[in-house]
Design brief:
By secondary structure, the chain is an all-alpha fold. The chain folds into 2 domains: 45 residues, Arc Repressor Mutant, subunit A (Orthogonal Bundle); 161 residues, Tetracycline Repressor, domain 2 (Orthogonal Bundle), CATH 1.10.357.10. The chain is 61% helix and 0% strand. Helix 5 packs across helix 10.
Length: 237
């Protein structure tokens, strides 16, 4: 067991290790994170840290799961609040996207860990999949609500001769949509990837040299991205 020097309460040791690792992640980046650095940060032996996270790989996995869960929770809470207020699907999408942006701005290191460059030598294990699926699940619920309510415009043209979607993605949505929305799931993945790309440009300062108002531009980008599925996102005046 880990000594009480971490927190005075042994059962809190894993969380204290995670907090230390998050601090080091922000300071050094994922590629330079190590159990030895965490042990030094907490004035522990390497063995004491390894009692909870055997390798840096295991520690990175815990950090990735934490990042996916916390970012998805922010989106879920924002969408639930918007839905409770009777907001339309486009408004719900904007609320969820804004929540993800606020989370990313507050923890850029965690955002970069899950949506930035891969960590050399690290392969994400299966236990990261359910947390990673929570973000597209939020978008899927909003898109499904838009489809059911009639808020979606049919596409101007059909681009696919056969579905490209995997069964796992269909399961997240619930079922394949009917015509004329047969490409909705593929278009939804384009929406998802567009939002992550927009977010990366926005929070990593890729647009600061060309855009005057970053908040307004982000909202505009969400509205433009939503057009790929035929959903109108109302923008503030």
């Amino acid at each position: 067991m880990l000594s009480c020097s971490v927190s005075g309460m042994p059962d809190q040791a894993p969380q204290r290790i995670i907090q230390s690792a998050q601090k080091l992640l922000a300071e050094r980046g994922a590629a330079r994170l190590s159990l030895e650095a965490v042990a030094d940060e907490l004035s522990l032996s390497l063995g004491e840290v390894q009692d909870h996270y055997a390798t840096t790989h295991h520690l990175l996995t815990a950090l990735i799961i934490e990042a996916y869960d916390s970012s998805a929770a922010a989106m879920e809470e924002a969408d639930a609040a918007a839905e409770k207020q009777g907001k339309q699907p486009g408004e719900r999408l904007l609320a969820a996207a804004r929540a993800l942006r606020a989370w990313a701005q507050a923890d850029l290191a965690a955002f970069s860990l899950i949506y930035g460059s891969p960590v050399p030598g690290y392969d994400a294990p299966p236990e990261t999949v359910p947390p990673a699926s929570r973000t597209p699940a939020v978008l899927a619920r909003i898109v499904q609500a838009a489809l059911i309510s009639g808020a979606l415009r049919p596409p101007s043209r059909t681009l696919l001769s056969a579905p490209l979607i995997r069964d796992e993605a269909v399961a997240v949505f619930g079922q394949l949509p009917p015509a004329p929305y047969g490409e909705l799931l593929e278009r939804g993945i384009v929406l998802w990837s567009s939002l992550i790309g927009l977010l990366s440009f926005n929070v990593l300062s890729r647009t600061h040299d060309s855009v005057r108002d970053q908040d307004a531009f982000f909202d505009f980008g969400v509205a433009v991205a939503a057009e790929v599925i035929g959903l109108d996102v109302p923008l503030p005046d």
